[in-house]
Protein backbone atom coordinates (compact mmCIF):
# COMPACT_ATOMS: atom_id res chain seq x y z
CA UNK A 1 0.00 0.00 0.00
CA UNK A 2 2.86 2.40 0.76
CA UNK A 3 4.58 1.71 -2.55
CA UNK A 4 1.28 2.06 -4.42
CA UNK A 5 0.76 5.51 -2.92
CA UNK A 6 4.14 6.62 -4.26
CA UNK A 7 6.24 6.20 -1.11
CA UNK A 8 9.68 4.58 -1.05
CA UNK A 9 10.67 4.20 2.62
CA UNK A 10 9.09 2.89 5.81
CA UNK A 11 9.85 4.70 9.06
CA UNK A 12 9.02 2.65 12.14
CA UNK A 13 9.45 2.82 15.86
CA UNK A 14 10.83 -0.21 17.64
CA UNK A 15 9.33 -0.90 21.07
CA UNK A 16 11.92 -1.64 23.74
CA UNK A 17 9.25 -2.84 26.19
CA UNK A 18 7.99 -5.41 23.68
CA UNK A 19 11.47 -6.52 22.60
CA UNK A 20 12.88 -6.86 26.14
CA UNK A 21 9.86 -7.28 28.45
CA UNK A 22 12.09 -8.94 31.07
CA UNK A 23 15.58 -7.60 31.60
CA UNK A 24 18.07 -9.65 29.60
CA UNK A 25 15.39 -11.66 27.79
CA UNK A 26 14.85 -10.56 24.19
CA UNK A 27 11.79 -11.48 22.13
CA UNK A 28 12.49 -12.20 18.46
CA UNK A 29 9.24 -13.79 17.34
CA UNK A 30 5.61 -12.75 16.90
CA UNK A 31 5.11 -8.99 16.70
CA UNK A 32 8.75 -8.50 17.74
CA UNK A 33 10.16 -10.48 14.80
CA UNK A 34 11.95 -7.42 13.49
CA UNK A 35 14.19 -9.35 11.11
CA UNK A 36 11.18 -10.86 9.34
CA UNK A 37 9.62 -7.39 9.08
CA UNK A 38 12.82 -6.03 7.55
CA UNK A 39 12.84 -8.83 4.98
CA UNK A 40 9.19 -8.13 4.12
CA UNK A 41 9.90 -4.43 3.54
CA UNK A 42 12.91 -5.33 1.43
CA UNK A 43 10.87 -7.79 -0.63
CA UNK A 44 8.39 -5.01 -1.39
CA UNK A 45 11.22 -2.90 -2.84
CA UNK A 46 11.15 -0.31 -0.07
CA UNK A 47 13.80 1.14 2.26
CA UNK A 48 13.75 1.43 6.06
CA UNK A 49 14.52 4.12 8.62
CA UNK A 50 14.58 2.81 12.19
CA UNK A 51 13.32 4.76 15.19
CA UNK A 52 14.44 2.48 18.04
CA UNK A 53 14.46 5.01 20.87
CA UNK A 54 15.44 4.10 23.48
CA UNK A 55 12.65 6.60 24.14
CA UNK A 56 10.13 6.82 21.31
CA UNK A 57 6.98 8.50 22.71
CA UNK A 58 4.55 7.20 20.04
CA UNK A 59 1.71 7.36 22.60
CA UNK A 60 3.06 3.97 23.70
CA UNK A 61 3.39 2.66 27.26
CA UNK A 62 6.00 4.87 28.99
CA UNK A 63 7.28 6.00 25.61
CA UNK A 64 8.56 2.48 24.93
CA UNK A 65 10.52 2.03 28.14
CA UNK A 66 10.15 -1.42 29.77
CA UNK A 67 8.63 -1.23 33.24
CA UNK A 68 11.57 -3.05 34.82
CA UNK A 69 13.74 0.06 34.38
CA UNK A 70 11.89 1.51 37.38
CA UNK A 71 13.18 -1.31 39.62
CA UNK A 72 16.88 -0.63 38.97
CA UNK A 73 18.52 1.32 41.83
CA UNK A 74 19.59 4.82 40.84
CA UNK A 75 17.79 4.70 37.50
CA UNK A 76 16.99 8.01 35.80
CA UNK A 77 15.66 7.60 32.26
CA UNK A 78 16.56 9.95 29.40
CA UNK A 79 19.67 11.16 31.20
CA UNK A 80 23.44 10.72 31.43
CA UNK A 81 22.84 8.06 34.04
CA UNK A 82 25.05 4.98 34.22
CA UNK A 83 22.24 2.46 34.92
CA UNK A 84 20.14 3.90 32.08
CA UNK A 85 23.00 3.96 29.57
CA UNK A 86 24.02 0.41 30.55
CA UNK A 87 20.49 -0.89 29.96
CA UNK A 88 20.28 1.05 26.69
CA UNK A 89 23.63 -0.36 25.53
CA UNK A 90 22.36 -3.90 26.06
CA UNK A 91 19.16 -3.17 24.10
CA UNK A 92 20.95 -1.47 21.20
CA UNK A 93 23.59 -4.21 21.08
CA UNK A 94 20.81 -6.76 20.64
CA UNK A 95 19.35 -4.74 17.77
CA UNK A 96 22.79 -4.35 16.19
CA UNK A 97 23.46 -8.09 16.19
CA UNK A 98 19.98 -8.81 14.85
CA UNK A 99 19.96 -6.22 12.09
CA UNK A 100 23.62 -6.09 11.02
CA UNK A 101 23.01 -8.17 7.84
CA UNK A 102 20.29 -5.77 6.66
CA UNK A 103 22.04 -2.39 6.68
CA UNK A 104 22.52 -0.43 3.47
CA UNK A 105 26.30 -0.83 3.77
CA UNK A 106 25.79 -4.56 3.34
CA UNK A 107 23.24 -4.22 0.55
CA UNK A 108 20.19 -4.25 2.83
CA UNK A 109 17.26 -1.85 3.11
CA UNK A 110 18.08 -0.11 6.44
CA UNK A 111 19.31 3.40 5.61
CA UNK A 112 19.63 5.15 8.96
CA UNK A 113 18.35 5.35 12.53
CA UNK A 114 16.94 8.11 14.71
CA UNK A 115 18.65 8.85 18.03
CA UNK A 116 16.14 9.39 20.87
CA UNK A 117 12.92 11.25 19.98
CA UNK A 118 12.21 14.97 20.23
CA UNK A 119 14.69 15.22 23.10
CA UNK A 120 14.73 19.00 22.70
CA UNK A 121 11.21 19.12 24.12
CA UNK A 122 12.43 17.33 27.25
CA UNK A 123 15.96 18.36 28.21
CA UNK A 124 19.25 19.83 27.05
CA UNK A 125 21.89 17.46 28.44
CA UNK A 126 24.34 17.26 25.52
CA UNK A 127 26.56 14.87 27.46
CA UNK A 128 23.66 12.41 27.48
CA UNK A 129 22.81 12.76 23.80
CA UNK A 130 26.46 12.47 22.77
CA UNK A 131 26.85 9.31 24.85
CA UNK A 132 23.68 7.91 23.32
CA UNK A 133 24.89 8.67 19.80
CA UNK A 134 28.11 6.79 20.58
CA UNK A 135 26.08 3.76 21.66
CA UNK A 136 24.17 3.89 18.38
CA UNK A 137 27.39 4.11 16.36
CA UNK A 138 28.93 1.19 18.23
CA UNK A 139 25.81 -1.00 18.01
CA UNK A 140 24.19 -0.21 14.67
CA UNK A 141 26.97 1.43 12.70
CA UNK A 142 24.62 3.26 10.30
CA UNK A 143 23.99 6.94 9.57
CA UNK A 144 22.11 8.69 12.36
CA UNK A 145 19.75 11.64 12.69
CA UNK A 146 17.79 13.47 15.36
CA UNK A 147 14.19 14.65 15.12
CA UNK A 148 13.01 17.64 17.15
CA UNK A 149 10.25 20.20 17.14
CA UNK A 150 10.60 23.19 14.86
CA UNK A 151 11.74 25.83 17.33
CA UNK A 152 14.97 27.45 18.42
CA UNK A 153 14.99 25.85 21.88
CA UNK A 154 14.08 22.37 20.64
CA UNK A 155 16.77 22.29 17.96
CA UNK A 156 19.49 23.73 20.19
CA UNK A 157 18.69 21.23 22.94
CA UNK A 158 18.15 18.18 20.75
CA UNK A 159 20.74 18.43 17.99
CA UNK A 160 23.91 16.33 18.37
CA UNK A 161 27.16 17.50 16.71
CA UNK A 162 28.05 15.19 13.84
CA UNK A 163 24.52 13.75 13.64
CA UNK A 164 22.10 14.98 10.97
CA UNK A 165 19.52 17.27 12.59
CA UNK A 166 15.91 17.28 11.41
CA UNK A 167 12.64 18.80 12.57
CA UNK A 168 9.02 17.74 12.42
CA UNK A 169 5.57 19.24 12.05
CA UNK A 170 6.04 21.48 9.03
CA UNK A 171 8.12 21.90 5.89
CA UNK A 172 10.22 24.80 7.13
CA UNK A 173 13.92 24.08 7.71
CA UNK A 174 14.68 27.55 9.09
CA UNK A 175 15.16 26.50 12.72
CA UNK A 176 17.32 23.53 11.81
CA UNK A 177 19.39 25.60 9.38
CA UNK A 178 19.89 28.40 11.90
CA UNK A 179 20.31 26.63 15.23
CA UNK A 180 21.78 23.17 14.57
CA UNK A 181 25.60 22.85 14.48
CA UNK A 182 27.27 23.03 11.07
CA UNK A 183 28.23 19.37 11.41
CA UNK A 184 24.51 18.49 11.72
CA UNK A 185 23.38 20.20 8.52
CA UNK A 186 22.28 18.30 5.44
CA UNK A 187 19.20 17.38 3.38
CA UNK A 188 15.97 18.43 5.08
CA UNK A 189 13.47 15.88 6.40
CA UNK A 190 10.11 16.62 7.98
CA UNK A 191 10.47 13.74 10.43
CA UNK A 192 6.79 13.67 11.40
CA UNK A 193 4.36 15.26 8.97
CA UNK A 194 1.13 15.07 10.95
CA UNK A 195 -2.12 13.99 9.33
CA UNK A 196 -4.14 15.06 12.37
CA UNK A 197 -3.88 14.23 16.07
CA UNK A 198 -4.40 11.36 18.47
CA UNK A 199 -7.61 10.15 20.09
CA UNK A 200 -7.77 9.90 23.86
CA UNK A 201 -10.45 8.20 25.91
CA UNK A 202 -13.02 10.86 26.76
CA UNK A 203 -11.98 13.14 23.90
CA UNK A 204 -14.68 15.24 22.33
CA UNK A 205 -14.45 13.62 18.88
CA UNK A 206 -12.50 11.26 16.62
CA UNK A 207 -9.62 13.07 14.93
CA UNK A 208 -9.55 12.64 11.14
CA UNK A 209 -9.41 14.49 7.84
CA UNK A 210 -11.50 11.88 6.05
CA UNK A 211 -14.47 13.45 4.31
CA UNK A 212 -12.81 16.87 4.11
CA UNK A 213 -11.93 17.19 0.41
CA UNK A 214 -10.47 20.67 0.81
CA UNK A 215 -8.12 19.60 3.61
CA UNK A 216 -7.02 16.52 1.66
CA UNK A 217 -6.32 18.65 -1.41
CA UNK A 218 -4.29 21.06 0.73
CA UNK A 219 -2.25 18.21 2.20
CA UNK A 220 -1.49 16.90 -1.28
CA UNK A 221 -0.39 20.32 -2.47
CA UNK A 222 1.94 20.62 0.54
CA UNK A 223 3.57 17.32 -0.39
CA UNK A 224 4.22 18.34 -3.98
CA UNK A 225 5.63 21.72 -2.92
CA UNK A 226 7.96 19.99 -0.44
CA UNK A 227 9.19 17.52 -3.05
CA UNK A 228 9.84 20.29 -5.56
CA UNK A 229 11.92 21.98 -2.85
CA UNK A 230 14.02 18.85 -2.45
CA UNK A 231 12.63 18.01 0.99
CA UNK A 232 11.88 14.55 2.35
CA UNK A 233 8.99 13.65 4.63
CA UNK A 234 7.65 10.91 6.88
CA UNK A 235 3.86 10.79 7.14
CA UNK A 236 2.73 10.51 10.77
CA UNK A 237 0.93 8.21 10.53
CA UNK A 238 0.71 6.52 7.12
CA UNK A 239 -0.93 3.55 8.85
CA UNK A 240 -1.76 4.20 12.47
CA UNK A 241 -2.56 0.66 13.51
CA UNK A 242 -3.63 -0.63 16.90
CA UNK A 243 -2.47 -0.40 20.51
CA UNK A 244 -2.87 -4.13 21.07
CA UNK A 245 -3.51 -5.34 24.59
CA UNK A 246 -2.32 -2.79 27.13
CA UNK A 247 0.32 -1.09 24.95
CA UNK A 248 -1.30 2.34 24.81
CA UNK A 249 0.42 5.19 26.58
CA UNK A 250 -1.06 8.36 28.01
CA UNK A 251 -0.45 12.07 27.88
CA UNK A 252 -0.93 14.34 30.86
CA UNK A 253 -2.69 17.70 30.86
CA UNK A 254 -4.81 18.50 33.90
CA UNK A 255 -5.12 14.75 34.45
CA UNK A 256 -4.14 11.43 32.90
CA UNK A 257 -5.16 11.25 29.21
CA UNK A 258 -4.93 7.60 28.12
CA UNK A 259 -4.80 6.96 24.38
CA UNK A 260 -7.47 4.81 22.77
CA UNK A 261 -6.87 1.27 21.54
CA UNK A 262 -7.11 2.53 17.97
CA UNK A 263 -4.08 4.48 16.78
CA UNK A 264 -5.72 5.34 13.47
CA UNK A 265 -4.46 8.94 13.77
CA UNK A 266 -6.47 10.04 10.70
CA UNK A 267 -4.08 8.04 8.53
CA UNK A 268 -4.25 7.41 4.76
CA UNK A 269 -4.67 3.72 5.60
CA UNK A 270 -7.37 3.09 8.17
CA UNK A 271 -6.77 0.83 11.15
CA UNK A 272 -7.59 -2.26 9.08
CA UNK A 273 -5.02 -1.29 6.44
CA UNK A 274 -7.57 -0.20 3.86
CA UNK A 275 -7.07 2.95 1.77
CA UNK A 276 -9.21 5.98 2.56
CA UNK A 277 -10.05 9.14 0.66
CA UNK A 278 -6.93 10.62 2.28
CA UNK A 279 -4.84 7.85 0.69
CA UNK A 280 -6.44 8.38 -2.71
CA UNK A 281 -5.96 12.15 -2.55
CA UNK A 282 -2.31 11.99 -1.53
CA UNK A 283 -1.63 9.29 -4.11
CA UNK A 284 -3.06 11.50 -6.85
CA UNK A 285 -0.79 14.35 -5.77
CA UNK A 286 2.30 12.14 -5.63
CA UNK A 287 1.55 10.74 -9.09
CA UNK A 288 1.42 14.31 -10.40
CA UNK A 289 5.02 14.69 -9.24
CA UNK A 290 6.39 11.18 -9.88
CA UNK A 291 4.50 10.24 -13.01
CA UNK A 292 1.99 7.41 -13.27
CA UNK A 293 4.55 4.95 -14.66
CA UNK A 294 6.48 5.10 -11.39
CA UNK A 295 3.56 4.27 -9.09
CA UNK A 296 2.11 0.74 -9.11
CA UNK A 297 -1.58 -0.09 -8.91
CA UNK A 298 -3.27 -0.18 -5.50
CA UNK A 299 -3.43 -3.77 -4.21
CA UNK A 300 -6.82 -5.40 -3.93
CA UNK A 301 -8.16 -5.90 -0.41
CA UNK A 302 -10.66 -8.54 0.61
CA UNK A 303 -13.98 -7.12 1.85
CA UNK A 304 -14.69 -6.76 5.55
CA UNK A 305 -17.10 -9.28 7.05
CA UNK A 306 -20.07 -8.77 9.33
CA UNK A 307 -21.09 -10.94 12.27
CA UNK A 308 -24.74 -10.47 13.07
CA UNK A 309 -24.86 -11.33 16.77
CA UNK A 310 -22.60 -12.88 19.39
CA UNK A 311 -24.33 -13.70 22.65
CA UNK A 312 -21.65 -13.96 25.34
CA UNK A 313 -22.36 -15.68 28.65
CA UNK A 314 -20.79 -14.97 32.04
CA UNK A 315 -18.66 -17.86 33.25
CA UNK A 316 -16.31 -16.57 35.94
CA UNK A 317 -15.99 -13.73 38.42
CA UNK A 318 -12.45 -12.37 38.41
CA UNK A 319 -12.35 -12.47 42.21
CA UNK A 320 -13.33 -16.16 42.28
CA UNK A 321 -10.09 -17.23 40.58
CA UNK A 322 -7.37 -15.18 42.25
CA UNK A 323 -3.74 -16.31 42.16
CA UNK A 324 -1.72 -16.76 45.35
CA UNK A 325 -1.14 -13.33 46.90
CA UNK A 326 1.90 -11.61 48.27
CA UNK A 327 1.62 -9.92 51.65
CA UNK A 328 2.93 -6.49 52.54
CA UNK A 329 2.53 -4.01 55.33
CA UNK A 330 2.16 -1.19 52.79
CA UNK A 331 0.75 -1.64 49.30
CA UNK A 332 3.40 -1.93 46.58
CA UNK A 333 3.55 -0.60 43.03
CA UNK A 334 3.15 -2.73 39.91
CA UNK A 335 6.89 -2.50 39.33
CA UNK A 336 7.77 -3.66 42.84
CA UNK A 337 5.49 -6.64 42.27
CA UNK A 338 7.20 -7.44 38.95
CA UNK A 339 4.20 -6.61 36.79
CA UNK A 340 4.02 -4.15 33.90
CA UNK A 341 0.40 -3.83 32.80
CA UNK A 342 -3.08 -5.16 33.47
CA UNK A 343 -4.49 -5.10 37.00
CA UNK A 344 -3.46 -5.56 40.63
CA UNK A 345 -5.97 -6.26 43.39
CA UNK A 346 -5.07 -4.85 46.82
CA UNK A 347 -7.10 -6.44 49.65
CA UNK A 348 -7.36 -5.19 53.22
CA UNK A 349 -9.30 -6.79 56.05
CA UNK A 350 -10.33 -4.24 58.67
CA UNK A 351 -9.25 -4.94 62.23
CA UNK A 352 -11.25 -2.02 63.64
CA UNK A 353 -13.91 0.41 62.54
CA UNK A 354 -12.72 3.19 60.26
CA UNK A 355 -14.44 5.63 57.92
CA UNK A 356 -13.64 8.55 55.67
CA UNK A 357 -12.39 9.43 52.22
CA UNK A 358 -10.21 6.78 50.63
CA UNK A 359 -6.86 7.93 49.25
CA UNK A 360 -4.88 5.39 47.23
CA UNK A 361 -1.21 6.38 47.43
CA UNK A 362 0.45 9.73 46.79
CA UNK A 363 -1.69 10.64 43.77
CA UNK A 364 -4.32 9.15 41.48
CA UNK A 365 -1.95 7.44 39.05
CA UNK A 366 -4.47 4.95 37.69
CA UNK A 367 -8.11 3.93 37.79
CA UNK A 368 -9.18 2.25 41.01
CA UNK A 369 -12.45 0.34 41.41
CA UNK A 370 -13.32 0.10 45.10
CA UNK A 371 -15.31 -2.74 46.70
CA UNK A 372 -16.47 -3.50 50.22
CA UNK A 373 -17.22 -7.15 50.86
CA UNK A 374 -17.13 -7.69 47.06
CA UNK A 375 -19.70 -5.01 46.27
CA UNK A 376 -18.64 -2.06 44.14
CA UNK A 377 -18.92 1.23 46.03
CA UNK A 378 -17.01 3.70 43.88
CA UNK A 379 -14.28 4.50 41.38
CA UNK A 380 -11.23 6.71 41.90
CA UNK A 381 -10.25 7.80 38.41
CA UNK A 382 -7.00 9.55 37.48
CA UNK A 383 -8.48 10.71 34.15
CA UNK A 384 -10.49 13.30 36.08
CA UNK A 385 -8.79 16.60 37.00
CA UNK A 386 -10.50 16.33 40.39
CA UNK A 387 -11.20 12.63 40.98
CA UNK A 388 -14.56 11.94 42.56
CA UNK A 389 -14.08 11.19 46.24
CA UNK A 390 -14.78 7.64 47.35
CA UNK A 391 -15.83 7.48 51.00
CA UNK A 392 -15.84 4.13 52.77
CA UNK A 393 -17.03 2.88 56.12
CA UNK A 394 -15.52 -0.35 57.43
CA UNK A 395 -16.19 -2.26 60.58
CA UNK A 396 -13.93 -4.94 62.00
CA UNK A 397 -13.90 -7.94 59.67
CA UNK A 398 -15.00 -6.03 56.54
CA UNK A 399 -12.97 -6.57 53.39
CA UNK A 400 -11.83 -3.62 51.28
CA UNK A 401 -10.74 -4.42 47.72
CA UNK A 402 -9.03 -1.93 45.41
CA UNK A 403 -8.69 -3.14 41.82
CA UNK A 404 -6.12 -0.92 40.12
CA UNK A 405 -5.96 -0.77 36.33
CA UNK A 406 -2.86 0.59 34.61
CA UNK A 407 -4.53 2.82 32.01
CA UNK A 408 -1.17 3.54 30.34
CA UNK A 409 2.06 5.08 31.55
CA UNK A 410 2.66 8.68 30.52
CA UNK A 411 4.70 8.84 27.29
CA UNK A 412 5.45 12.55 26.90
CA UNK A 413 6.50 15.47 29.06
CA UNK A 414 8.17 16.04 32.39
CA UNK A 415 6.27 13.24 34.15
CA UNK A 416 8.21 10.56 32.27
CA UNK A 417 10.89 9.87 34.93
CA UNK A 418 8.54 8.41 37.56
CA UNK A 419 5.85 6.32 35.92
CA UNK A 420 5.35 3.69 38.59
CA UNK A 421 1.80 2.39 38.50
CA UNK A 422 -0.56 1.05 41.15
CA UNK A 423 -0.08 2.23 44.71
CA UNK A 424 2.89 4.47 45.47
CA UNK A 425 2.66 5.79 49.02
CA UNK A 426 0.24 5.18 51.87
CA UNK A 427 -3.38 4.11 51.58
CA UNK A 428 -5.49 6.15 53.94
CA UNK A 429 -9.12 6.24 55.04
CA UNK A 430 -9.82 9.64 56.50
CA UNK A 431 -6.87 10.35 58.78
CA UNK A 432 -6.04 6.67 59.26
CA UNK A 433 -3.23 4.95 57.36
CA UNK A 434 -4.21 1.35 56.83
CA UNK A 435 -1.62 -1.43 56.92
CA UNK A 436 -1.53 -5.10 56.00
CA UNK A 437 -2.42 -5.99 52.41
CA UNK A 438 -2.88 -9.06 50.29
CA UNK A 439 -1.74 -8.21 46.76
CA UNK A 440 -2.97 -10.23 43.78
CA UNK A 441 -1.17 -9.85 40.46
CA UNK A 442 -3.71 -9.95 37.62
CA UNK A 443 -1.84 -9.19 34.36
CA UNK A 444 -4.87 -10.50 32.45
CA UNK A 445 -2.93 -10.82 29.21
CA UNK A 446 -4.82 -14.03 28.52
CA UNK A 447 -8.40 -15.07 29.27
CA UNK A 448 -9.02 -18.01 31.63
CA UNK A 449 -10.30 -21.02 29.67
CA UNK A 450 -12.90 -21.99 32.28
CA UNK A 451 -13.92 -21.54 35.88
CA UNK A 452 -12.07 -23.59 38.51
CA UNK A 453 -13.78 -26.74 39.73
CA UNK A 454 -16.61 -25.98 42.11
CA UNK A 455 -16.93 -22.33 41.08
CA UNK A 456 -20.29 -21.47 39.57
CA UNK A 457 -21.15 -18.87 36.97
CA UNK A 458 -21.70 -15.39 38.46
CA UNK A 459 -24.86 -13.32 38.20
CA UNK A 460 -24.09 -9.86 36.79
CA UNK A 461 -25.48 -6.83 38.58
CA UNK A 462 -24.56 -3.17 38.98
CA UNK A 463 -22.40 -3.73 42.06
CA UNK A 464 -20.67 -6.95 40.97
CA UNK A 465 -16.94 -7.53 40.75
CA UNK A 466 -15.46 -7.90 37.21
CA UNK A 467 -16.81 -10.85 35.24
CA UNK A 468 -15.42 -12.93 32.40
CA UNK A 469 -17.81 -13.70 29.51
CA UNK A 470 -17.38 -16.10 26.62
CA UNK A 471 -18.86 -17.05 23.24
CA UNK A 472 -17.83 -19.53 20.58
CA UNK A 473 -18.74 -19.09 16.93
CA UNK A 474 -18.09 -20.30 13.40
CA UNK A 475 -17.70 -18.15 10.29
CA UNK A 476 -18.86 -18.89 6.75
CA UNK A 477 -16.17 -16.47 5.52
CA UNK A 478 -13.07 -15.42 7.42
CA UNK A 479 -12.05 -11.78 7.15
CA UNK A 480 -11.47 -8.52 9.00
CA UNK A 481 -14.24 -6.98 11.05
CA UNK A 482 -14.88 -4.28 13.66
CA UNK A 483 -16.33 -5.59 16.92
CA UNK A 484 -19.02 -3.48 18.59
CA UNK A 485 -20.14 -3.92 22.21
CA UNK A 486 -23.44 -2.02 22.56
CA UNK A 487 -24.40 -1.44 26.18
CA UNK A 488 -21.03 -2.46 27.62
CA UNK A 489 -19.20 0.06 29.82
CA UNK A 490 -15.52 -0.85 30.08
CA UNK A 491 -13.23 -3.83 29.71
CA UNK A 492 -10.95 -5.88 27.51
CA UNK A 493 -11.65 -8.24 24.58
CA UNK A 494 -9.78 -11.39 23.54
CA UNK A 495 -10.28 -13.36 20.31
CA UNK A 496 -8.68 -16.79 20.02
CA UNK A 497 -6.21 -15.85 22.73
CA UNK A 498 -5.24 -12.46 21.24
CA UNK A 499 -5.77 -9.40 23.40
CA UNK A 500 -7.47 -6.91 21.06
CA UNK A 501 -7.32 -4.11 23.63
CA UNK A 502 -9.58 -2.00 25.79
CA UNK A 503 -13.10 -0.77 25.15
CA UNK A 504 -14.75 2.11 27.02
CA UNK A 505 -18.21 3.50 26.39
CA UNK A 506 -17.04 7.11 26.78
CA UNK A 507 -15.44 6.92 23.31
CA UNK A 508 -14.73 8.29 20.85
CA UNK A 509 -13.74 4.73 19.89
CA UNK A 510 -16.77 2.44 19.93
CA UNK A 511 -15.42 -0.68 18.20
CA UNK A 512 -12.30 -2.85 18.18
CA UNK A 513 -10.47 -3.94 15.04
CA UNK A 514 -10.38 -7.74 14.61
CA UNK A 515 -7.91 -8.84 11.91
CA UNK A 516 -9.04 -11.82 9.86
CA UNK A 517 -5.67 -13.48 10.53
CA UNK A 518 -6.79 -13.93 14.15
CA UNK A 519 -10.03 -15.66 13.10
CA UNK A 520 -10.79 -19.10 11.67
CA UNK A 521 -13.70 -20.89 10.08
CA UNK A 522 -14.55 -23.12 13.05
CA UNK A 523 -14.70 -22.68 16.80
CA UNK A 524 -13.59 -19.13 17.38
CA UNK A 525 -13.45 -18.20 21.07
CA UNK A 526 -14.40 -14.68 22.11
CA UNK A 527 -13.70 -13.67 25.72
CA UNK A 528 -14.61 -10.38 27.38
CA UNK A 529 -13.41 -9.07 30.71
CA UNK A 530 -16.31 -6.87 31.80
CA UNK A 531 -14.96 -4.52 34.45
CA UNK A 532 -18.32 -2.95 35.28
CA UNK A 533 -21.09 -5.50 34.75
CA UNK A 534 -24.67 -4.29 34.85
CA UNK A 535 -26.65 -7.34 33.79
CA UNK A 536 -28.29 -5.77 30.75
CA UNK A 537 -25.39 -5.82 28.27
CA UNK A 538 -26.40 -6.58 24.70
CA UNK A 539 -24.93 -9.07 22.23
CA UNK A 540 -21.73 -8.21 20.40
CA UNK A 541 -21.57 -7.85 16.63
CA UNK A 542 -19.04 -7.48 13.84
CA UNK A 543 -19.52 -4.60 11.40
CA UNK A 544 -17.87 -3.63 8.13
CA UNK A 545 -17.56 0.08 8.82
CA UNK A 546 -17.13 1.68 12.19
CA UNK A 547 -18.77 4.65 13.82
CA UNK A 548 -17.15 7.01 16.29
CA UNK A 549 -19.10 8.66 19.07
CA UNK A 550 -18.77 9.98 22.59
CA UNK A 551 -20.95 9.26 25.60
CA UNK A 552 -21.14 10.68 29.13
CA UNK A 553 -19.02 8.77 31.62
CA UNK A 554 -21.49 6.66 33.64
CA UNK A 555 -19.02 6.71 36.54
CA UNK A 556 -18.76 10.52 36.80
Characteristic terms for this protein:
globular; 556 residues; alpha+beta; six-stranded antiparallel sheet
- Summarize model confidence as the mean pLDDT: 97
Tell me the number of helical segments per DSSP (H or I, 4 or more residues long): 9
Please bin the fraction of helical residues: 10-25%
CA radius of gyration: 25 Å
Could you give the order of strands across the largest sheet?
A: 12-21-13-18-15-16
Task: Provide the β-strand percentage band.
Answer: 25-35%
Can you describe what's shown?
- It is a single chain.
- The protein has helices spanning 2-5, 16-19, 34-43, 82-99, 126-139, 152-158, 174-179, 213-228, 277-290, and strands at residues 9-13, 47-51, 110-114, 144-149, 164-168, 189-194, 232-236, 250-252, 256-258, 307-310, 313-317, 326-328, 343-349, 354-360, 367-372, 375-381, 391-394, 399-405, 427-429, 432-433, 437-442, 467-473, 481-484, 490-495, 498-504, 511-514, 524-530, 540-543.
- It has 556 residues and is an alpha+beta fold.
- The strands form 7 sheets. Strands 12-21-13-18-15-16 form a 6-stranded antiparallel sheet, with no helix packed on it.
Q: Topology, please?
A:
Layout: H1 2-5, E1 9-13, H2 16-19, H3 34-43, E2 47-51, H4 82-99, E3 110-114, H5 126-139, E4 144-149, H6 152-158, E5 164-168, H7 174-179, E6 189-194, H8 213-228, E7 232-236, E8 250-252, E9 256-258, H9 277-290, E10 307-310, E11 313-317, E12 326-328, E13 343-349, E14 354-360, E15 367-372, E16 375-381, E17 391-394, E18 399-405, E19 427-429, E20 432-433, E21 437-442, E22 467-473, E23 481-484, E24 490-495, E25 498-504, E26 511-514, E27 524-530, E28 540-543
Parallel strand pairs: 1-2, 2-3, 3-4, 4-5, 6-7
Antiparallel strand pairs: 8-9, 10-28, 11-22, 12-21, 13-18, 13-21, 14-17, 14-19, 15-16, 15-18, 19-20, 22-27, 23-26, 23-28, 24-25, 24-27
Amino acid sequence: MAKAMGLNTIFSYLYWDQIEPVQGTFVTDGNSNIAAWVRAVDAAGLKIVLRPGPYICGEHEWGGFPSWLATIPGMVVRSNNDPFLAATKSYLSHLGKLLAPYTAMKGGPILMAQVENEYGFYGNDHTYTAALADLFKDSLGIPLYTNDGGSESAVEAGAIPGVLAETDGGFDPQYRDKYAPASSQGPFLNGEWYMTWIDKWGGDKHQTNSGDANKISLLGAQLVTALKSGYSFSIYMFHGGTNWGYQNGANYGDSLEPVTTSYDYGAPLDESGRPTDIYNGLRKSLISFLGSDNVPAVPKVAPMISISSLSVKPYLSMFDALPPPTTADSAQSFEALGQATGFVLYRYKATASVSGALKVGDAPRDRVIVYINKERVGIWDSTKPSPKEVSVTLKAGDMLDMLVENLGRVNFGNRIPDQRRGVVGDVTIGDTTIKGFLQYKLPSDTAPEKAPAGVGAPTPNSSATPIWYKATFDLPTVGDTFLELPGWTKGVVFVNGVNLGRFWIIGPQQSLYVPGVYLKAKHNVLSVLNLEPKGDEGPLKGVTSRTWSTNPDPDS
